[in-house]
Queue: 3 jobs
Job 1
Amino acid sequence: MTGPHTAPKIFEAFDHSSDPALRARHFGEWDRLREVEGSFGSSLNPDRTVWFLLRYADIHTALQDYELFSSSSVIPFTDEAHHWIPEEIDPPEHNKYRRILNPAFSPQVVAGMEGAIRVACADLIDGLTGAAGCDVIADFSRQFPTRIFMRIMGLPVERADELLEMVHNLMHTNPTDDPDGAIRGGAMMAIYGLLTEIFHSRRAAPHDDLMTTLVQAEVDGRPLSDDELRETGFLLYMAGLDTVAGAIGYVIKHLAENPDQQRAVRERPASIPAVVEEALRMYSIVTTSRVVTRDVEFAGCPMKAGDRIVVPTASANRDPAAFEDATTFDADRTVNRHIAFGAGPHRCLGSHLARAELRIALEEWHARVPRYRLDPDATITEHIGGVAGLDSLRVTWG
């Protein structure tokens, strides 16, 4: 199942959200750790070991085995007072909540949204081309998917900048900068407050949006409780306002650094779906966690019930045991079974929407902006942790 392994090392204070080497070269450092360690543990939390699985086979197996690796908590180092729905619920209960959400993100529904998505994308890009360049992250990759997802959920689009700041403070403030959790805790409470306000308004006046779907939904013949509504809305809010933004940033950076591939995208727009898949594989951004349910040896690690595993898709999808020339960007790759959207029952609910947004972003970007390159005077930094991304990406035209 997991292949031969040597005894794993235990690092005393390793935290993937703040590790200096990961912050300096995110993907390259996962590659190094996978090849040197394969799997390892962190004793940062004195109450449990947090095990890092880095090989594709181990991660793929773990994500599918919800009986051994429970999703009851996706926070590896601390115990937080939340229960995100449906992410932190295992089957069969998970299926009841997932069925409520699936229709809103089906391939048919996403296809029907394509015209509106394309118009929103084109309008954003047209507003950028009059200058000599832009910050792809601030001016495009955060704004574009946010506008789309806020409309789907029924969030106030006019408050987009405020809502994006809440997400950033919650997901990308590392413990070093926020030792007492005040920044993250404040952002979380602000998000919960906003969602509660909107759910109450939808009960009184239903709209054609996902928030209304949730307040009208039933599980086991009863409406969702206020807590269930908040936890479901919170999870959707975080996922919809952050993940696609991160993916767009990495693929635009790659194409800015590789002018031949950028030219190929312009000249062969039909190749863009394959470029999207290879970018999802090469620059996977999600790192999630699971709870070990019983004592077991897995991936060479002597796990105890209550331990956590951390599974970075960035490491799995660049594993040479699973992909030929794994660290080479190959848009003509014929077999690309990446797990950028996860695997098993918790595979990403919004994968169809994410693929559509990424494809349209590349199509409209390369149809509208001139040739672009990285601004040589700009410094590029990343945030890591649960969802990785670039903090900024200055490009210039020409």
Note: The CA atoms of residues 72 and 88 lie 4 Å apart.
Job 2
Amino acid sequence: MMHTTTIQKKIAVFASGAGSNTEKIIIYFASHPSISISLIVSNKANAGVLKIAATYSINTLLIEKEKFFTQNAYTDELKNLGIDFIVLAGFLWRIPKKLIEAYSNKIINIHPALLPKYGGKGMYGHYVHEAVIDAKEKESGITIHYVDEQYDHGNIITQIKCSVAENDTPDSLAEKIHQLEHQFFPSTIEKCLMEQKDSLTL
């Protein structure tokens, strides 16, 4: 059997905050033979994730609202950079139709709860954990899913659960969720990309 040269798949990570998930993803793929983190995209000029990008010498793209929502949604820029796949890691804007169409089934998101519960507009970070605890839920977790035009709505790829203890606070629950995110998000991204690559070569 002949082996052809491995085609590098280029990922753009979209993030709005400190970037702890993004850093774990960067580290995970640092020496990957066929997947690279090629671009960090943010909608906030002071986002911590941009410093992480600089630390690892990864190109960045700072996006602005009007162009994202009413013009080309930066699809031309992403295509020109050869981006194959988009990962949302704490990105707070809803993804516009133009970008979803340009990257059909190639955008995934991570949400810090077990969807369809505790999803939707305004449900991110601390707000999610507060709602889970206020509802006296016995378990929470993470949901990794494909992205469509609605917040936290696309087809679910995987869910990983954790228990919610009676004495958990939003902060302690957040820590449990972060551990799950850091452990499972990078490998799930890899699995999605490898499955897509396999389906193309069949």
Note: Helices lie at 20-29, 48-55, 65-70, 75-80, 97-102, 126-134, 170-201.
Job 3
Amino acid sequence: MRTFIKLAWRNIWRNKRRSFISIGAVLFAVLFAITADSFERGSYELMIRNMVKFSTGYIQIQDVLYDDEPSIDNSMLYDESLLEVLDGFGDRISYTVPRIQGFALAATDSKTRGVHVMGIDPGSEDRFNNLSENITEGSYLEENDNAVVLAGGLAEILGLGVGDTLVIIGQGFQGASAAGMYPVKGIVRLSIPEMNNNTVYVPLEAAQWFYAADDRISALIIMPENPRHTGRITSELNEQLDSEWYTALPWQHMLQDLLRMMQMDRAGSQLIIFILYIVIGFGLFGTILTMMLERLREFAMLMALGMKRFQLAIICLLESVFMSFTGVIAGILISFPFIYYFNRNPIPLGGELAGMMDDYGFEAVLPTSIEPSIFITQAVTIFIIALLIGSYPAYKAFKLDLTHHPK
């Protein structure tokens, strides 16, 4: 076998021009496939980061009934027993964001509107989504305030400004009446239009008083130090939490609709990549076929000198393996700096698309992904395609008819 490997390696470099064409074809195939997949996954990762940042967080601890029926009655106790469990994850959790939320009726002297009341811890909520940076009038909430911050769109609808009074009426915990009058301390611009038109922010303690839900929250958002450990942390939390009352949910569960949309979009992208594979395959086959026709005389001469058919077939197959492998490795090495650069320096978008993304608070950029599976999957796929096509010379050598070879 060592002799076959040595002969195959020498044959590759005996005709460098022919070998470089074959290696180059595999190289560019790997480069194009990795680049296309990296840009697609990069856009998905950016979308997920934005949704996690502005909406769900990476993990949420909730009452076991809250996910199916999100109401104040299914809020959970935010007490020492829960904090003790979280203390065991101190080195892996960056920070937590407690929230109590529900729907109520907001009223002024002349207008009423259904609103989403969000009881927040001002410090952790600001760290989570930078609310204080988006205050357009007045000032941001402090922990002991008995005031509200209105979303900009809602403030316009109700005709309220800083210093005005907002009346909120709703239903509290276990049917208790919920009513309160709050001065407007600030106006905040929210990027998502739906939230901008119906959100009222209240300090956590004031919201708990409003809903008659002392020491209770709707959900506790958990932001891990390393988002890649989300699944492991979620599993360990569920093992340590009292399963009768609490459950920890990862972002994948809370953003199922978004993930389904991505899967549908990815199905179309995979079709395009499949077409790319077909084009790549025919390009490689054309290159291999041309080289094969050039080598028929060589094959005939080697067999006339006593080389067995299976030996010639093995050498041809080893040549294909070496050239395909070299092309794949070269493609990965060349594509990685390119992909890494655009991961750190995403391509800025322009026009209407950029404006739409800015309106929703998302970065108007097109990044790449450096997920290792991209390089591995595309490289292995192209290698298999190249190897299958490269096995044609081995098949041709094994079936070579010496009575009709070209002179």
Note: Residues 336 and 394 are 33 Å apart (CA to CA).
